[in-house]
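Revision sheet: structure tokens.
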Amino acid sequence: MRLRTMISGFLLSMLLVHLSPAIADNWWYRKHVDACPGGQRVPIIIADITLYIDLQWMDYLDFGEFQAPADPCQTLPIKAQGVTFYYPYKELERLYQDRRLPLTRLILKAGTADEIWRLPFPDFTARRRSIGTSGFVEDVSDRAHLPQADQRAYLFQHLTKGMSQEPFEVVCSGVSTGAPPGRRCDAHYFLEPGLILFYKFRQDGRTMAEEYWDVPPPKPIQEPDGLLELDRKVRELVQFLRAEP
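Predicted:
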């Protein structure tokens, strides 16, 4: 389990370097900021939205068309194309554990509509149902034309005050046994105009570090109703990142 996690992270880094050398030259990986003091949340501006991020949390920072600062430890505002949280560094893991977020990847990036994969329909049908007073869900797998038999697609809508009520999709796949065990899901949508949110998570509720150390899973996330609550917690994490410390 531990070796597979380490190999996956290594292969991802190698893929970025070898397939996209021009892009890789304009990225900061975690190694670029290892020597920087932790506990400092630096303003990162993505799609005109400022996120206050401790660089010890990130896996890599994509500058895109922007120039990377000469000093990775500077604390002035930095313009970037996107930021990815992937490997379970202890600082990031603490952030997830405090919120019981079993995320295996979190990406915030500037983007356009053609970068978003969307299910081939815009709205709910009469088959939607309520999840308490929190929102709506509809299983739309039969209309999504998913390639794998174990995949399910859902359309959700929040009704929580202060939260966007724009419908969004979540796709889950996998089986409850095997290696690694458990189903996994991902969401990919515009959190705000111009800002794309992408995340993956484990339904067994374990964070990446808990998987790495083979910690017994806490209470699993129920599909599909529990997915709406998890999305709410992800959005609250983003709100935390937007709050100036």
